[in-house]
C-alpha cells in the first residue's frame, strides 16, 4: 500500500493512496504517483478557475434581469387574506419582499412565505412561465373568493407549493425539494422562532420543459395554448447550477434571518406589553412604589407614593432615603443590613410625611440591575397606620374584656368567701353580744368580750365591703338627684378629708336623675373622696362636680362596660400624686393598694367598682404621675320623678309576745345561735337543719308558727322555694331570709323584692329582733 501527500504552495491539499502492486513499492513508484497527482491538482484548479470565470461573466452580463418588477396577479394578492399572521404582522410586507428578492432576483421564478396555518405571508411571481400556469390553474376554482379557491384543491400551483411541499416542511421541520406541477422544482425550508416552526419559505427553480411532448402535456393539463407555453418556456434564461445552489443557501439564510426578526419582534412586543402592564400596576397601585438608587435618591415615584407622603413626584425625586424614613426606628438599620446581605428585605418602618407626621408602614425592598447594568432598588410601601390603630383598639378591648372577666371572677370568689366568713363571724358576734349583756361591766371579762366583739365587727365590715364589690349587697333603689345627694353628705365629707384639704363643690345646672340606693351613692362618694384624700400629701384640693353626658357608639367603645345612652356624670378630681398606667389598670382589684401596711384595706375603689357595675354604670379614670387623678362615674339617666333622700329611722325596740319562729339553717353553729337569741328575745324557737325537717315541723305545728327564719342557700332546697312550700302549710306565716349575701331573694340588680324581709349575716340580737318585729307587723 502506497500513500503520498498532494502539496501545493507548501500546504497539504490532499492525501492519495494506491494498492495495485503485488510487490513492495519503490522510490520510482512514489515519484511517479506524486507527479501524477500534481498534474491532477493543476487540472482541478483549471476547472475551478473556469467555473469562477463563468459565474463572474454571468453576473456581469448586462442582459441578465436584475430586480425585475413583480407584476400583480389577476386574482389579487393572496397575502391580503392574512390579517393577523405572526410572520406578516411581525415583519411586514415590505421587509418580507426585500428578503425574498435576495434569492428571487437570481432565479426569476416564484416564491412564497407561509404562516404555520398555511396563510400566505408573501406570494411573488417573477417569471412569465409561473404567471401563466398559476393564473391558469386559478381558473379551475369556482367563484372569485380566493379563500374558497385555496381550499377547493384544484388550484394546481398552490397545491404543489403548499400541500405537497411547504406543509410537509412545517410538519416535519425538515427541508423539502421535489418536482412541482408546473414542470419546475420547488425547494422549501422551515422558519423557526423560539425553537418552534412558525412557517416555511419556498421558491421554484429550474428550466421549463424543453421537450415538445412535455409542453403539450402541460398545455393540456393547465388548458392553455401550446404556443403560449412554448414562447414562455423559451423566454426563460437558464441559470447555471452554482446560481441555483447560491439561491438555496440564501433561502436558508433568509429563513434564519426571518425567524430571528420574528423572535426579536416577539421579544419587543412582550417587553412593550410588560412595560405597559407594569406601568399600569405602577400608576394604579394603592401602595406606594419607589424606584431608587441604593444608598442615594429616588428616581421615580407612583401617584400613591405622592399621596402617601403628601409630596409631588418632583419633590420626592429631590429627597434622600433619610428624608422620609424615621432614623430613630430600630428596624431601620436592621432592614438596611438585611438588604445589603441578601439583596432584599421586608419589615415594618416608621415613615415621615411631608407635614412632619409619622405613620407605620410595611416596606419591602429589592436590589436589582437595570438593562444598562446600573444598580437599582425598588421599595413597595403599604400604609398600615389604620391597621395599627385597629389592632390597638382590639388589644384595648381584649384587655378590657380580660379585666372584666377577672373582676367577675374575683367578685364570685369574694361573695363565696363572705358567705362562709359571715357564718363564722355571726357565731362570734352573737355569743359575744349575749355574753356582754350577762357580764358585769366592771369585770375584766367584759373588756375582753368587748375586744372580741369589736374585732368581729371590723371583720364583718370587711365582708360587707367584699359584698359591695361582688354586687351582692341588698339595695333599695329610688329616683335620686345626685346634686341633692352630694349636698346632703358634703358636711360629713369635709370632716372626713380634714381641714388641710379644700373640698370644692361644683354642681351641674340640672343633672339628670338616677335610679340608685341612696346608701350606695353615699358609699361611692365617701370612697372616692377618701381615695383622693390619701393621694394628697399636705394641703390640696378635691373637686366634686356633676354633669350630663350623652354617650354614642364611638364614645361607648372607649368606656369599658358603657352602653350608648344618657348618663349623669359624677366627677371627683384631686391634685394628688397621681398614678402610672400599670397602677391605673389594677385600682379596682380588691385588696390592691399602694398605701403603707396598715394604712388601707384596698377595698375602697373595689366597692366603687361594685356599686357602679351593679347600677349599670361605668367609670373612667384619668391620671398620671404628679398630675393628680380624675374619676368620672357614669350613672344611667332615670326618666321618672325624684324623691328626697330621707334618713331612715331605726326600727322600734322589740315587743315580746312569745311568737313561734321556725329556724332553718344547715350550719349547726348558726342554727344554735339563732335559737338562743330567740330565747333571749322571748320567742319560741323551732330548729330544722334541712328543708325536709322544716316541712315536717311546719306540717306538725301548722298555724302556730308565725315566722319562718330561713337561710337562703341550702343543700336540698333554697330558702325561697322552701318559703313557698311552708306558706301552703301555714297560710299566714311571715318569712325572714338570712344570708351572707342576697343571691336567691333579690332581682338581677340586687334589689330586694316586695314582701320579703332580709337579715344580713352576721347579725346582732337587736338586728334579729328588728327583723322579726318588722315581719310580724307588716300588713
Give an overview in words.
With about 775 residues, this protein is of the alpha+beta class. The chain has 5 domains: about 1-60, no CATH class; about 80-265, Beta-Lactamase (2-Layer Sandwich); about 285-385, 2-Layer Sandwich (Beta-Lactamase), CATH 3.30.450.20; about 475-635, Heat Shock Protein 90; about 660-775, Rossmann fold, CATH 3.40.50.2300. Helices cover about 45% and strands about 20% of the residues. It has 24 helices and 24 strands. The strands form 6 sheets. It has a 5-stranded antiparallel beta sheet, sandwiched between helices. Strands 9-8-12-11-10 form a 5-stranded antiparallel beta sheet, sandwiched between helices. Strand 11 (about 360-370) and strand 12 form a beta hairpin. Helix 3 packs antiparallel against helix 9, helix 16 (about 480-495) packs across helix 17 (about 520-535) and helix 22 (about 690-700) packs parallel to helix 23. It is elongated and about 165 Å long. About 35% of the residues are buried.
Amino acid at each position: 500500500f502506497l500513500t503520498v501527500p498532494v502539496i501545493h504552495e507548501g500546504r497539504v491539499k490532499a492525501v492519495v493512496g494506491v494498492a495495485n502492486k503485488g510487490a513492495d513499492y519503490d522510490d520510482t513508484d512514489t515519484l511517479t504517483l506524486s507527479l501524477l497527482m500534481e498534474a491532477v491538482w493543476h487540472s482541478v484548479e483549471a476547472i475551478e478557475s473556469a467555473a469562477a470565470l463563468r459565474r463572474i461573466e454571468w453576473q456581469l452580463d448586462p442582459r441578465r434581469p436584475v430586480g425585475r418588477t413583480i407584476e400583480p396577479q389577476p386574482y389579487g394578492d393572496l397575502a391580503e387574506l392574512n390579517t393577523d399572521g405572526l410572520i406578516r404582522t411581525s415583519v411586514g410586507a415590505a421587509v418580507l419582499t426585500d428578503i425574498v428578492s435576495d434569492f428571487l432576483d437570481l432565479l426569476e421564478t416564484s416564491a412564497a412565505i407561509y404562516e404555520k396555518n398555511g396563510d400566505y405571508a408573501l406570494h411573488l411571481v417573477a417569471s412569465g412561465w409561473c404567471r401563466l400556469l398559476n393564473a391558469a390553474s386559478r381558473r379551475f376554482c369556482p367563484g372569485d373568493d380566493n379563500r374558497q379557491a385555496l381550499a377547493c384543491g384544484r388550484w394546481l400551483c398552490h397545491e404543489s407549493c403548499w400541500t405537497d411541499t411547504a406543509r410537509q416542511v412545517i410538519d416535519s421541520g425538515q427541508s423539502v425539494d421535489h418536482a412541482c406541477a408546473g414542470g419546475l422544482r420547488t425547494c422549501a425550508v422551515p422558519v423557526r422562532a423560539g425553537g418552534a416552526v412558525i412557517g416555511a419559505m419556498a421558491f421554484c427553480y429550474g428550466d421549463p420543459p424543453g421537450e415538445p411532448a412535455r409542453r403539450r402535456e402541460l398545455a393540456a393539463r393547465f388548458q392553455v395554448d401550446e404556443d403560449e407555453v412554448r414562447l414562455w418556456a423559451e423566454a426563460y434564461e437558464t441559470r447555471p447550477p452554482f446560481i441555483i445552489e447560491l439561491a438555496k443557501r440564501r433561502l436558508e439564510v433568509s429563513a434564519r434571518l426571518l425567524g430571528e426578526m420574528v423572535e426579536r419582534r416577539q421579544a419587543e412586543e412582550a417587553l412593550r406589553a410588560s412595560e405597559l402592564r407594569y406601568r399600569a400596576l405602577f400608576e394604579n397601585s394603592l401602595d406606594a412604589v419607589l424606584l431608587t438608587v441604593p444608598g442615594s435618591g429616588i428616581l421615580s415615584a407612583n401617584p400613591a407614593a405622592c399621596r402617601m407622603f403628601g409630596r409631588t413626584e418632583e419633590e420626592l425625586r429631590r429627597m434622600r432615603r433619610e428624608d422620609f424614613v424615621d432614623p430613630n426606628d430600630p428596624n431601620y438599620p436592621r432592614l438596611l443590613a438585611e438588604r445589603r446581605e441578601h439583596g432584599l428585605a421586608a419589615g415594618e418602618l416608621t415613615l415621615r410625611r411631608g407635614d412632619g407626621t409619622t405613620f407605620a408602614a410595611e416596606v419591602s425592598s429589592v436590589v436589582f440591575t437595570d438593562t444598562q447594568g446600573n444598580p437599582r432598588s425598588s421599595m413597595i410601601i403599604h400604609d398600615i397606620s389604620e391597621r395599627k390603630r385597629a389592632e390597638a383598639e382590639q388589644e384595648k378591648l381584649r384587655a378590657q374584656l380580660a379585666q372584666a372577666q377577672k373582676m367577675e371572677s374575683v367578685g364570685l370568689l369574694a361573695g363565696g368567701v363572705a358567705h362562709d366568713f359571715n357564718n363564722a363571724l355571726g357565731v362570734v358576734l352573737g355569743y359575744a353580744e349575749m355574753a356582754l349583756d350577762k357580764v358585769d361591766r366592771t369585770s375584766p371579762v367584759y373588756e375582753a368580750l368587748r375586744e372580741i366583739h369589736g374585732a368581729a365587727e371590723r371583720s364583718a365590715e370587711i365582708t360587707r365591703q367584699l359584698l359591695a364589690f361582688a354586687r351582692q349587697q341588698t339595695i333599695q333603689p329610688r329616683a335620686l338627684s345626685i346634686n341633692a345627694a352630694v349636698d346632703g353628705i358634703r358636711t360629713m365629707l369635709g370632716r372626713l378629708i380634714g381641714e388641710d384639704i379644700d373640698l370644692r363643690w361644683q354642681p351641674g345646672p340640672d343633672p339628670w336623675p338616677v335610679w340608685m340606693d341612696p346608701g350606695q351613692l353615699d358609699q361611692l362618694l365617701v370612697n372616692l373622696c377618701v381615695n383622693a384624700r390619701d393621694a394628697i400629701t399636705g394641703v390640696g384640693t378635691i373637686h366634686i362636680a356633676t354633669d350630663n353626658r350623652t354617650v354614642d357608639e364611638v364614645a361607648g367603645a372607649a368606656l369599658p362596660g358603657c352602653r350608648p345612652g344618657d348618663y349623669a356624670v359624677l366627677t371627683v378630681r384631686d391634685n394628688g400624686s397621681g398614678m402610672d398606667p400599670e397602677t391605673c389598670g389594677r385600682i379596682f382589684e380588691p385588696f390592691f393598694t399602694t398605701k403603707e401596711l396598715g394604712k388601707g384595706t384596698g377595698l375602697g375603689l373595689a366597692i366603687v367598682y361594685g356599686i357602679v357595675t351593679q347600677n349599670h354604670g361605668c367609670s373612667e379614670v384619668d391620671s398620671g404621675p404628679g398630675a393628680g387623678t380624675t374619676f368620672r362615674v357614669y350613672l344611667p339617666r332615670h326618666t321618672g320623678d325624684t324623691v328626697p333622700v330621707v334618713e331612715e329611722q331605726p326600727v322600734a325596740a322589740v315587743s315580746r309576745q312569745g311568737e313561734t319562729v321556725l329556724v332553718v339553717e344547715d350550719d349547726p353553729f348558726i342554727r344554735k345561735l339563732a335559737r338562743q337569741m330567740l330565747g333571749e328575745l322571748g320567742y319560741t324557737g323551732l330548729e330544722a337543719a334541712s328543708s325536709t325537717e322544716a316541712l315536717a315541723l311546719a306540717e306538725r305545728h301548722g298555724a302556730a308558727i308565725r315566722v319562718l327564719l330561713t337561710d337562703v342557700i341550702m343543700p336540698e332546697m333554697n330558702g325561697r322555694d322552701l318559703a313557698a312550700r311552708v306558706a301552703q302549710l301555714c297560710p299566714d306565716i311571715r318569712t325572714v331570709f338570712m344570708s351572707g349575701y342576697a343571691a336567691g331573694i333579690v332581682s338581677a340588680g340586687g334589689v330586694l323584692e316586695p314582701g320579703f324581709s332580709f337579715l344580713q349575716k352576721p347579725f346582732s340580737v337587736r338586728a334579729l329582733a328588728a327583723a322579726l318585729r318588722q315581719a310580724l307587723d307588716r300588713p
